[in-house]
Amino acid sequence: MSSLPTWGVVATIKAPARDILNFAAHHLDLGAHRVHIYLDAPNPQAEAALRGHPKCRVIVCDDGYWRRRRKRAGRPDAHQPRQSINATHCLRRRPQVDWLAHIDVDEFLWPATPLPEQLAAQPDDTLSARVRPVEALAPDPDDPPPEGVTWFKSCARLPGQRREETEAIYPGFGAHLNGGFLSHVAGKVFVRTGDPEVSFRIHNVFRSGEMDVSPPELQGTRLCHLHATGWEHWRETYAYRLAHGSYREGLKPAAPDGTGLNMNALFRRIEAEGGAAALRRFWQEVCVATPGLRGRLDAHGHLHAITLDPDAARARHFPDARLDRPH
């Protein structure tokens, strides 16, 4: 009987050391054989802790690194190409696993059954396998979740069903939302390693310039996306996302037929009409796990209670990590 495949994750990260180590520790807890971290900015505390763990690999993406990767062009200005370049570098250089997933620091794999078994079940000619996301809801202060639980929302796979359900679940803003998510509904992919012609993008993989268009889905695994865990957290990241990230100009509208506003236009209209108070009303309807929203999600099969504890995982895997000084 052949052994089960190994798996790992790769991420390009600019975040506090606690968040970086929580991300790494969660996936080590799940059985990741390698956790590859590309530090998008120096972080001595995270770097030291990661280098001390036998299953972690860390690369600091300083000017010297980018000169080696892109002698003429240097470091890309946008973070999305930096992520893709780094993930592909890991994939082709020395992934040290049979399957590699490219995810972000606020994304946590959540398998219902062991990942090696799920990956072993894929046909031999499978290049990549998709993991669909669930997006975290902020707790309702007046009706908090059980201790340790985070409520997450999902959405329908089929665009027509997704559109109908989204407008029913989010009556005030659903016409402009893709599944009710503030971030991506595409999810992320695992790729089988060993092919030098394969390259990563954010949500897909390419072989010899051609996208792997219909990867099978790992039905037994969710991607828990902690995109906005609270009002203050969301407001801290809002301006950057509006200018450079998942709310930036140029992205497609939510509806498959191109109707409705994209996220950038939606947020700019909300702010123009009512400022911060209007943004707060949007947040309350779409992002807070109120009893009403939970009931509407549950009626469509899109409410999920998940117990993540990355702080405890960090204490197990990085017990001596120094987090007392700013990086």
Structure overview:
The protein is α/β, with parallel strands linked by helices and 327 residues long. It has one domain. Helices cover 35% and strands 20% of the residues. The chain contains ten helices and 13 strands. Strands 1, 2, 3, 4, 5, 6, 7, 8, 12 and 13 form a ten-stranded mixed β-sheet that branches. A three-stranded antiparallel β-sheet has the order 9-10-11. The protein starts with 6 loop residues before the first strand and ends in a 10-residue tail after the last helix. The mean pLDDT is 94.
Secondary structure: helix percent: 25-40%
Q: What is the residue-averaged pLDDT?
A: 94
Radius of gyration: 20 Å
Quantity of strands, as a count? 13
Reported for the largest beta sheet, the result is: 10 strands, mixed
Taking the alpha carbons of the first and last residues, their distance comes to 47 Å
Unreliable parts: none
The ordered string of helix (H) and strand (E) elements is EHEHEHHEEHEEHEEEEEHHHEH
Number of domains: 1
> β content, as a range?
15-25%
The number of helical runs is 10
Based on CA inertia axes, which overall geometry fits? globular
SSE blueprint and pairings:
Blueprint: E1 7-13, H1 17-30, E2 34-39, H2 44-51, E3 56-60, H3 63-69, H4 79-93, E4 99-102, E5 107-111, H5 115-120, E6 128-136, E7 150-153, H6 159-169, E8 188-192, E9 198-200, E10 205-207, E11 210-211, E12 217-225, H7 231-243, H8 263-286, H9 291-299, E13 303-306, H10 310-317
Parallel strand pairs: 1-2, 1-4, 2-3, 6-12
Antiparallel strand pairs: 4-8, 5-12, 6-7, 6-8, 7-13, 9-10, 10-11
